[in-house]
Amino acid sequence: MKKWLEPLSTAWVGVRTHKLRSALTMLGIVIGVAAVITLMSIGRGATAAILANIESMGSNLITIGPGASVGFGGVRSAGGSAQTLTQEDAEAIAEQIPYIAAVSPSYSSRLQLVAGGENMNSQVTGVTPEYWEVLNLELANGAFFSDYDYQCGAKVAVLGSNVKETLFGDADPIGQQMRMGSTIVRVIGVLESKGTSMMGLSDDAVIIPLTALQQTVAQRTAQGERVVSSIALPVSDEGQADYVAEEITELLRSRHQLGPGVDDDFRITSMEEIASAISEVSGTMTLFLGAIAAISLLVGGIGVMNIMLVSVLERTREIGIRKALGARERDIWGQFLIEAVFLTFAGGIIGVILGYVASHLVASIGQMTTVVSADIVILAVSVSVGIGLFFGFYPAWQASRLNPIEALRYE
Amino acid sequence: MIKLRDITKVYPMGKRELTVLRGINLHIEQGEMVAIMGPSGSGKTTLLNLTGCLDIPTSGNYYLEGRKVSHLSSGELAGIRGEKIGFVFQTFNLLPRLSALANVELGMRYAGGVDRQRAVAALTKVGLSDRANHRPTELSGGEQQRVAIARAVVKNPPLLLADEPTGNLDSRSGDEIISMLTTLHAEQGITLVIITHDADIAHHCQRIIHLKDGQVEREEKV
User: Fold this and answer.
1) Same domain membership, residue A311 and residue A242
2) pLDDT band at A279 (very low <50, low <70, confident <90, very high)
3) Has residue A361 been placed in a domain?
4) Is the pLDDT of residue A76 over 60?
5) What is the pLDDT of residue A198?
6) Which residue in A107, A159, A256, A304 has a CA-CA distance of 20 to 30 Å to A80?
7) Cβ-based contacts of B109 with chain A (< 8 Å)
8) Could you tell me if A121 and A239 lie in one domain?
9) How would you label A294-311 residue by residue, b for 16+ Cβ within 10 Å and e otherwise?
10) CB of A104 closer than 8 Å to CB of A130
């Protein structure tokens, strides 16, 4: 037998001769590693799903919303409550700012919808024809309104899938009339269901031409400009997003006549910012999940130490015999350390396999996205080896320090 | 081979001290076969442990093959045990979960490396080649002690120390073990030190050292 293999085979004999004990020791590590792999894969999967969702809306999208309104005495209301953003702002941006593919102002208002015997409250958004392409919307059936519809303020609506479901059930809503606030509108299309969306339109939304909404509920500023609640604009060159944001800030500040030192009365957010904020948050969540799982790994490690201490005590005589035969402290130390690392390494490998299977089960049963990435697998296995080294160290050291005479006398 | 000069060994027993060896002077030639006798508590086993480099003396000097070993570190002592000394114990001290052959191989594990053929040869020499794969629990006491002897001599140590090797055996097995040790001594010129209570066994040796109260009471040529 090769000389370097001997300590390994000694450790293997030690593991094999106490099968049940070894298996139970490993179990702690197996569960710990499997938990880490599964929870981290769920966390990573959630992050990936959210980012994919944002990606689908276009990562080059910039959104401008109104800032917080400052009332009398400087009392600041929540962001978005001011009515400072106007359609004229949007037109100015379209004319003066470079690198912008389209400008899509919109105005949202909550209105009561009634059709047949059903009714519901919904977010009604008035949009321009560009909105369609800017947000990558897809229709389940029917059509989007045309430029002509927009120009003449046609009272036509495109429904989110939930709205259609609630108001019309299984019936075909296209061409049907419904009441929206105090106006009667005709349904011309139904949006594809997007599932729960962090951003943009939910399945509960209704879209109508901005001109139509302005006739009924939209307001005007003191200067007579038409108020909008947000402006979405895709940047044609992603590299210029920062430049575009700066230019818009400058333009809007001058249009809104904000002197130096006055806060912006609008807020510019890019999708990229949102994406990075979200991935930061969900990354923290993932780490948190991993940390909880790591606790069980730690408990498993303590189990390893416990068993190794028992094992050292039980094999005191064996240690004495080995020492009498010429084993040095490092031989004994190595033997027990290798045994501990062997247990945790094997436990780690089994845990990875189990975690992999578990995360696939979660994905198929729980309908969640899970991502098992190589770095987590490597991390989990190396942590379990590290646990073997750490928690095996003391028992192995204790074994190596035994006095051979006393060890031989031990009953 | 073995030279002991004014060896004392004192064990701390709580606040008091227990003096086990009080100035032992001893000289054992290469190739000698020596018995150590004495009543219990006379320090026989302590003397054997010191001679076997399992322990170091409290004071005095121990020269093994001319090298002073009485102040070596535990690691250096382990090296000497592996290389130069074979032990045979009263209680055999085989590893219960290993086969007879694996136990013999263990004798080489910390002394240059395992050689399966030499292990088989050593087992054959003690007449147990057909029991190579038996566990110690499946062997009789005499057979276990023969495995232990094979384990002790498989690495060809110059010194073999036996602490009451027949103490746990019936007289017939005991006789077998003694004749085996005598043969080893005669054929391989191994230096042999045996602790025994049995005067018959002692008289197989060339010299008997009588210990009493941690001192050499007298030496007797056979």
Assistant:
1) no
2) confident
3) yes
4) no
5) 46
6) A159
7) 6, 10, 322, 325, 327
8) yes
9) bebbbebbebbbebbeeb
10) yes
